Sequence to fold (194 residues):
Amino acid sequence: MILVIDGYNLLKKLHGQDVSEVQRSAFVNLMGRYIKKRQHKVMVFFDGGPYYYPSAEKQKGVTVWYSGQNQSADDLIITYAQEHRNREMLVVTLDRELCNKVGESRVETVEPMFFYERVHAVCNPEKKSGPELHTDIFKLSEDSNEELDKIMYEAAGMRIPLKDERESGHQKQSASGEHASKKEKAYRRYVDKL
Fold:
């Protein structure tokens, strides 16, 4: 599977608006450890870079793209998704416009913090969880219900609905249920491979 990561979108969720070179490098190193365990092709896209035009380099087995001065990382991701729409691909972003654009190419998206937690769990299996992350889901009860906790964890990783789905008010069935659409089943397969 190809994992296309909107680099600053994810890193700003982790570290706030000011992302340092050290934080960017640490993330690329983490992804290098991750691909040794999962064998996915990982591409991380960043805005800007050292050149006027788009450029790419390999770091720790990860392809790191810089958009250059004339376009954004989102533009590169959209182009890549369109050109590789028939490949098994998952885009990691919370940018709604980007989600809608890659969705037009039938490419699935996943929320950055859910993705990061999965990567961290794969790379650090001895730890129960990764570093303390500020997400939108909070457990309000001390009650222990493993099944409910699992459902909530999976819900945190649900993809952002496409604009057409939001406007139609269409409510999808659970991806693991009998009535899940082909699209939802495909999405679940991708997420399960993380």
Remarks:
- The radius of gyration is 17 Å.
- The mean pLDDT is 82.
